[in-house]
Amino acid sequence: MKIIECPRDAMQGLTEFIPTHQKVAYLNQLLQVGFDTIDFGSFVSPKAIPQMRDTPAVLEKLELTGSTSKLLAIVANKRGAADACNYQQIDYLGFPLSISETFQQRNTHASISEALNIVSEIQELCIRTNKQQVVYISMGFGNPYGDPYDTAIVEHFTDILATLDVKIISLADTIGVAEPAHIEYLFKTLIHKFPTIEFGAHLHSNPATSVVKIEAAFNSGCQRFDGALKGFGGCPMAKDELVGNMATETIVNFLIAKGKNVNLNHEALKSALDLVPSVFSHI
Fold first, then answer.
1. CA nearest neighbour of 251 among 72, 91, 36
2. If 245 and its partner were Cys, which of 29, 193, 200, 228 is the partner (CB 3.0–4.6 Å)?
3. Contact between residue 272 and residue 33 where contact means Cβ atoms under 8 Å apart
4. pLDDT per position in the chain (283 positions), as tens?
5. Cβ-contact 8, 229 below 8 angstroms
6. CA distances (Å), 95 to each of 74, 77, 112, 167, 231, in order?
């Protein structure tokens, strides 16, 4: 069972800049917990995501010795991917592929067809530099723009990604609209049809409905869960301040209740949780 902690997703939308030294201290604490992967930063335009402009500086100060966690960085184009590939410390490059044309343009200033070409280019870079690409199917459970959506579209894009030899796909409920039955259907269908792909759940949710959504993905065979401590982050277009990332501690407690060995250092996790208020004190 893989738990991916996403401090980058929690921080990126904040208008007040979190000092580099504070990011470093927080990430170094997270590295002690034992998460499978930490989504720590991004190589995108500082104009687009000013909060992440210090990602290279942060990376150089991370204490990776003794940590089992792998690092994931988000990229939005080939240039950002090439920059990320220069760092041996980074294991995964994450790319947000939306099946909503409107959101793809807003998010990466590219059409869906252009984004698929970028995925192909990133895949080639990953192969050459011994990294792995993680593609997020954003708006994977619906969108607020009126763009076409149904589960067959998700399956169609998964098939395209499979032909590009993408091995990890995370289904992202960007605006928190997925119902448990919807989650269960997609994961069961895709896991069965594409057995060589590792499917993850990147679900946004109101805290009151988090557990039923986690349970739906878990019962459908999902073994890769994204979260952010205390549920910070999410999509600013959600129009609901309570819709954010799944709280990692909720995911952890759910898995423990199901008898799963999450293999985390719980003392280090508690220390990380204790740091959250100071990191996000301006919210």
1. 36
2. 228
3. yes
4. 999 999 999 999 898 999 999 999 999 999 999 999 999 999 999 999 999 999 999 999 999 999 999 999 999 999 999 999 999 999 999 999 999 999 999 999 999 999 999 999 999 999 999 999 999 999 999 999 999 999 999 999 999 999 999 999 999 998 889 999 999 999 999 999 999 999 999 998 888 899 999 999 999 999 999 999 999 886 543 444 546 789 999 999 999 999 998 999 999 999 999 999 999 876 5
5. no
6. 6, 8, 12, 13, 21
Total structural domains within the chain: 1
The token pair at 257 is: 């209740």
C-alpha–C-alpha distance, residues 192 and 210, integer Å: 24
Rounded-to-integer distance, Cα 25 and Cα 279, Å: 10
DSSP classification of residue 261: -
Q: CB under 8 Å to 94, separation ≥6 — which residues?
A: 39, 72, 73, 74, 75, 133, 134, 135, 136, 170
* Tokens linked to 77: 């184009």
What single-letter amino acid sits at 16?
Answer: E
For 110, which DSSP code? S
Structure tokens, 273: 């949780």
The per-residue DSSP string of 94-151 comes to EEEEESSHHHHHHHHSS-HHHHHHHHHHHHHHHHHHT-EEEEEEETBTB-SS-----H
- The owner of tokens 């019962």 is 219
Contacts of 9 (CB under 8 A, 6+ apart): 39, 226, 228, 233, 234, 245
For the chain, the 3-state helix, strand and coil shares in percent, each to the nearest 5, are: 45, 20, 35
CATH code: domain of residue 10:
3.20.20.70
Domain carrying residue 22 = 2-279
End-to-end CA distance of the chain: 32
Q: Provide the whole-model pTM.
A: 0.95
Tokens encoding 71: 């690092």
